[in-house]
């Protein structure tokens, strides 16, 4: 029988360091009692946590008073706390912190999978394969991971980070790799920006898929790997649309196979060759935020990730239990915004406008379909519409 992952030396070092170094004690909000495997360490951490919430210093005196109030074994506990102070090693604190967070993640993941294994063996357990997969992804995604949150969040540190970011922007001011390829639009928004969610919204059949796809192609041709999720058509249909535009052959001809073999076939072959070299991944199977996030993580690890394009947000499913469609779209909108922060890249999400946009002169934020959260979470909203003369 395997013992669950843990590292008692690291647990002791973390608790001892928080007890003897005020700077280490600031990390207490980034830990939970479940991050500790040793039951005695769990009790000590609960006491420290309560002292922190009460805005009291965390030291030997206050900790022993808290231990008394909890009616723990005083004699045994005071000796144990003394041992923790001996284990303190604040100069290597971040290493020990990450070690126990990693072990904690493994234990929580093991527990989730073990519970699922037991359910699967029950005769009355009945669920679809899609729901089962989404539940697993959601539960694992919900596990708190704060290994990367060991940075200094003081205003001085944040301002320095912002200043370095501005310096980097200045040094790369001529970098057009994130320009969308439409001159007037690029002048207005200066291209796409990391950690921003951009909505491209229109009524049906106005051209938002073609527009979003062309932006994806332009960014991919600049060397950024673009991950395109489409729920309106298959990968093959999307590829046919791209070939039609680049070969300048009517899509209806491609669909029927009625193109001119002498005049148009070479254009089709050349367009296919050019498109096959694009730095792009097409995905028509991922239908939930959990599946998209998992695929995005895989792409970032293997080939890099520069942009995500979702066509379109109202066709996705959240994979979470929600009471209304409004709540579901709001949840997906928020998750996409959080993904821009997680991956440090821009995300474009295509969105459908409601019927009220048909009778308005110009589309407004209130015309975004199914959820007001879309306009709240988006950093930019681009509307496509036809004016009274039916010009795009």
**Corresponding CATH architecture of the largest domain:** 3-Layer(aba) Sandwich
CATH topology of the largest domain: Rossmann fold
Q: What percentage of residues falls in helices of 4 or more residues?
A: 40-55%
The Cα radius of gyration reads: 27 Å
Number of domains: 2
Shape: elongated
In total, how many beta strands? 6
Instruction: Spell the H/E element sequence.
Output: HHHHHHHHHEHEHHHEHEHEHHE
User: CATH homologous superfamily of the largest domain?
Assistant: P-loop containing nucleotide triphosphate hydrolases
Largest sheet: 6 strands, parallel
**CATH C-level of the largest domain:** Alpha Beta
* Low-pLDDT windows of residues: 146-150
| Separate helix tally | 17
Q: Which structural class matches the secondary elements?
A: alpha/beta
Beta content: 5-15%
Strand order within the widest sheet?
3-2-4-5-1-6
Give the terminus-to-terminus CA distance.
67 Å
Name the average pLDDT: 83
């Amino acid at each position: 029988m395997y013992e669950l992952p843990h590292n008692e030396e690291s647990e002791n070092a973390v608790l001892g360091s928080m007890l003897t170094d005020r700077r280490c004690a600031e990390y207490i909000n980034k830990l939970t009692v479940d991050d500790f495997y040793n039951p005695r360490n769990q009790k000590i951490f609960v006491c420290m946590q309560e002292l922190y919430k009460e805005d009291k210093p965390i030291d030997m005196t206050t900790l022993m008073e808290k231990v008394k109030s909890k009616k723990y074994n005083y004699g045994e506990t005071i000796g144990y706390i003394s041992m923790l102070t001996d284990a303190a090693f604040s100069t290597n604190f971040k290493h020990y912190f990450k070690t126990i967070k990693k072990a904690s993640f493994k234990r929580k993941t093991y527990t989730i999978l073990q519970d699922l294994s037991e359910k699967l063996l029950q005769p009355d357990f009945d669920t679809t394969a899609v729901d089962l997969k989404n539940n697993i992804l959601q539960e694992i995604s919900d596990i708190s991971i704060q290994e990367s949150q060991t940075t200094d969040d003081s205003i001085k540190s944040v301002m320095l980070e912002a200043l370095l970011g501005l310096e980097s922007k200045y040094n790369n001011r001529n970098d057009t790799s994130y320009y969308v390829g439409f001159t007037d639009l690029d002048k207005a928004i200066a291209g796409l920006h990391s950690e921003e969610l951009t909505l491209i919204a229109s009524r049906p059949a106005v051209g938002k898929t073609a527009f979003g796809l062309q932006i994806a192609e332009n960014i991919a041709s600049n060397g950024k790997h673009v991950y395109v999720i489409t729920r309106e058509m298959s990968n093959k249909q999307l590829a046919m649309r791209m070939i039609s535009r680049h070969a300048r052959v009517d899509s209806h001809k491609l669909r029927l196979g009625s193109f001119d073999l002498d005049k148009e076939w070479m254009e089709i072959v050349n367009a296919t060759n050019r498109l096959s070299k694009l730095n792009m991944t097409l995905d028509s199977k991922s239908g939930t935020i959990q599946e998209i996030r998992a695929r995005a993580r895989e792409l970032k690890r293997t080939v890099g990730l520069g942009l995500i394009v979702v066509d379109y947000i109202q066709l996705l499913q959240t994979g979470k239990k929600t009471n209304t469609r409004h709540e579901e779209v709001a949840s997906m909108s928020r998750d996409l915004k959080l993904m821009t922060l997680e991956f440090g890249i821009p995300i474009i999400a295509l969105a459908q406008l409601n019927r009220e946009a048909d009778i308005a002169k110009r589309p407004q934020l209130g015309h975004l379909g199914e959820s007001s959260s879309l306009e709240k979470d988006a950093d930019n909203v681009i509307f496509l519409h036809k004016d009274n003369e039916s010009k795009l």
